[in-house]
Design goal:
2 copies of one chain form a homodimer. With 259 residues, chain A is α/β, with parallel strands linked by helices. Chain A has one domain: Rossmann fold, CATH 3.40.50.150. Chain A has 8 helices and 13 strands. In chain A, the strands form 2 sheets. Chain A has a 7-stranded mixed beta sheet with strand order 6-5-4-7-8-13-12, with helices on both faces. In chain A, β9 and β10 form a beta hairpin. In chain A, α1 runs parallel beside α4. The first copy, chain A, is globular. The N terminus of chain A is likely disordered. At the A-B interface, β2, β3 and β9 of A face β2, β3 and β9 of B.
Chain lengths: 259, 259
Amino acid sequence: MTEIRELRTDEPVHATAPRTGDAFGETLLAALASGPAPAAVSEVIERDDGLIVASDAHRYFRTPEAWQEPIRWAVAQARGRVLDVGVGAGRHALAAAAAGCEVTGLDVSEGAVEVSRRRGVRAVRGAGEHADRLFGPGSFDTVFLLGQNLALLASPERAGDLLGVLRAVTAPGASILGDSQDPASGSARNEAYFARNRDRGRPPGQFVLRARYLDLATPWFDYWYCSPHELEAVAAPHGWRLEDARRAGTTYSVRLRRV
Amino acid sequence: MTEIRELRTDEPVHATAPRTGDAFGETLLAALASGPAPAAVSEVIERDDGLIVASDAHRYFRTPEAWQEPIRWAVAQARGRVLDVGVGAGRHALAAAAAGCEVTGLDVSEGAVEVSRRRGVRAVRGAGEHADRLFGPGSFDTVFLLGQNLALLASPERAGDLLGVLRAVTAPGASILGDSQDPASGSARNEAYFARNRDRGRPPGQFVLRARYLDLATPWFDYWYCSPHELEAVAAPHGWRLEDARRAGTTYSVRLRRV
């Protein structure tokens, strides 16, 4: 057999790490600048096991008729003053505002805050875990953790930080409306990652991710795809009761009630 | 001002490198499996300075009416027995075959060979620089280095390896039809990379790239976006004369004649 050399370099490659920055926000800004048009800008997400996934950033701009049913179900239950944690490009915030809610968006990404503001959302920069530094007790009737933002609960250890703060800034009877992916429905590829997590004493769906955009990468962050059962267990001690859920394929939405 | 913590991890992240493998071929296989449908699968290319770019892999399947004019111009000049170096998904090979040429595709990617074969192209696995191990002297009348595959010339030092082998496997009067991007038309982002290359004694457009797909990455490889002038200079000593060129924006196509 002929030995076939591959494409190669002549010298050892010392690849440079990307710059740390708001890769997520820059992705949204580029997608907005594209129209926003479908298939114009990709969101690139890297996992700490070397996995990389690119998907159409236009999904952050899709309107309710394009959403999965559990997401429409969740947004339809918004009432009164809504805090949209991880507002992104504002797709859920805009739908709730159109239904008469008074919506405030929150995002750690400067670019996301800018994009959602340009689209008419009142948005501020900040992390959900520090919402109590921005808003007084009882400020909201509804909290969104949509667009898979239930995963911002980060880990079983840290979930209480966010859930506790959300209890502090909401009024009696408030609800959290959120969605996620159930890790039980993972692919073969995820199975290896789940197994590694179990070996490290972590829940299977605790992903370590970063967003990349051109020469930028966000810092690595924890993103926990918890099951409805895991969610129920971490929420109860912090005053949130799992009241209802909807499922479509691997996606599920929940309503948690402040108790 | 409130100090805002970002999303983060609780532990230092020791990210694992992707597995080395045929990321490019797996991208094409996934795109083919999608239909091929537009906007279904992204091609992810990483540069050694941390830059990452995702674009629609469907472009590898586009038919001539969607090509830029210089590419149509190049393919229209194919004559006789054609060697398509870096055949990819076979878009140029199929157009030349439809015009009556006898086309052989060559690609270092197993997946590319499989995809182009499934689409009806006679394709073999191998590097252009080793075409002489697969094909006898005078086997071809035309060589394609399309889809920016002039960049497979890799570097001024190595360009002669490929050009010399292509001279060996072609008949008198043969032509190379190729296209590339002119580095003179680079963006501000590329300017910093160009400057780094100049500092290292390289031509500005010599990129070090790898393809990524899910958990796979190709090895890093040299990919040289040479100017028409640089091309002319490296081709002449190896018996290829730059005979004609067409330009559209940053893209240019050339015809080199075997002399």
